[in-house]
Amino acid sequence: MIVRDEIQAVTDRIAKRSEKTRAAYLSACRANMRPGPRRKRLSEGNLAHATAACPVLEKTELLGARWPNVGIVTAYNDMLSAHQPFDRFPEIIKTAARQNGATAQVAGGVPAMCDGVTQGQDGMELSLFSRDVIAAGTAIALSHDCFDSVIHLGVCDKIVPGLIIAALRYGYLPQIFAPAGPMPSGIPNPEKARVRQLFAAGEVGRDELLAAEAASYHAPGTCTFYGTANTNQMLMEIMGMQLPGSSFIHPNTPMRDAMTIQTTRRAIEITNMTDAFTPACDVIDERAIVNGLVGLMATGGSTNLTIHLSAIARSAGILINWDDYADVSHIVPLITRVYPNGVSDVNHFHAAGGMAYLIGELIDNGFVHADVTTVAGGEGLVEYTREPILVAEESDIPVSYRAGPTESLDTDVLTSVSEPFRPDGGLALISGNLGRGVMKVSAVKRENWLVEAAAIVIDDQNELIAMHKAGELERDFVAVLRFQGPRANGMPELHKLTPILGLQQDKGFRVALVTDGRMSGASGKVPAAIHLHPEALLGGPLSRVETGDIVRLDPANGMLDVLGADLDARQPAIARLADNLSGLGMNMFAPQRAIASDAESGASTLGDMAFMVQD
């Protein structure tokens, strides 16, 4: 189980770059560790407040005994399909805790917005910053210092990154994630995309479009395409922050409940009141972050993680940049084909062998560090090559583990390193005189990669929609959508443009999108250079592009340039932001927009961490 030299080289480079910040972070975590239970240091008045509403048994144990106390941070609401199942989780966890010599309390709730609801709407401009609100809310929940370990309940796009950013700030505590799982498969994702394009072309009406959408998003659980939410689940598992095999089990099933019970048991077992103490700061190190990068590339995961994983790493004192992503992408083959990289969904991926097969294949071929610390304990990442099975009801242990599959059960969805879908991870670092960004090429047909065409410069995605309706897009073009960065308007996703761009590409036109904003976690078949920085609002080169300039996007060579124009000689355009920042609470987020870091650094509004040291 020796890791490849190329992977080790990236890991060593990250460790060297992070030497001071990581050491300062670990020092801060060690300084906050003390013998449990942690509530012992609270005053009598503090502890009385923390237990006042507890049932008698829990109150007795919290006030006097040495039972560990598990905190629960939940992102439950009943509007998000992926988070609605969490309604039942706290009671399951509390019951399991009592049965295993512990108590559990809901420490706090955090907001969870749905990008699917806000996609293309003004509310999307709050989406990215919601991650840092969630992190801050989690920090408030844990500030009471009553907990010996923490279970996080979250699944979707900004929620898991926000939770783990805060979990790592409290890295001296054991932290474990308990997912809810995906909904059953609905209509095939390509059929949904087809109806969307037909609607964009005016060939079907809203009734047909709504029927297709409702047949796709139809039940409790995560949306089944491989966007940001399901990429989050892969990431938490391959980085060892949740139990093996827990990512893609359906909600409200005996197996899902059993995994939640087992998660509770494990949260109790890894407190500092046992010999198996496993604080989060020991789980997420440079090797775990590289394992996350490898998983992202091997599965063709969401481009949003090129932002979130950078922010997550920084919360553990680890500094990564897009060069690390690009180098790992060059090394690691794509061995998963899930929509939008294919036609199947995550349920097919799970049935084909899922995470157990994927991780086993990566370990056997030296692409991941197996000798890491995980919440599962045992043999490090090797534990994640096993899959859970239900145990008889009369047993005290809800699940046991068996060896996972060593061969894919569906090679159209999950293949091998020796016969990959692509020789690389399908993520390209893009740079040139328009700045620095990323492009997901794994879902883009090779013949559509290179685009050289006249720019159409817009400041609002609705401008391109209006041009489409007016018949003005019947040509090759590069849509340059500027003033969409974190400082401008919170960096919304621009998935609203996907059906139009896809339709024009299907007509034979060469089209692309270039922006300082984000695409959906399901970035698809149209070439899109995204997350560009410096962003336009800060005078970046996007602010100097003019309609008619010839833009060349060449992901094969990692290049993005305006040809034949002296951008430095032009004055930057002035952003027109007043209209879209006045409603839906947008003005409340002006302080966050003013301090947000660039996308490569994680687009963070939390500021430098106390352990970040200066050279």
Write up what this structure looks like:
The structure is a single chain. With 615 residues, the protein is an alpha/beta fold. It has 3 domains: 5-183 and 227-393, no CATH class; 185-218, no CATH class; 427-601, IlvD/EDD C-terminal domain-like (Glucose Oxidase, domain 1, 3-Layer(bba) Sandwich), CATH 3.50.30.80. It is 36% helix and 13% strand. It has helices at residues 5-17, 19-31, 44-51, 56-64, 89-99, 115-118, 127-142, 159-169, 189-200, 206-216, 228-238, 254-269, 280-283, 286-299, 305-315, 322-331, 346-351, 354-364, 461-469, 486-489, 498-506, 590-595, and strands spanning 69-74, 103-109, 149-153, 175-177, 386-390, 399-403, 427-432, 435-440, 451-458, 477-481, 511-515, 528-533, 550-554, 559-563. The strands form 3 sheets. The chain has an 8-stranded mixed β-sheet with strand order 7-8-12-11-10-9-13-14. Strands 2-1-3-4 form a 4-stranded parallel β-sheet, with helices on both faces. It has a two-stranded antiparallel ribbon with strand order 5-6. Helix 11 packs across helix 14.
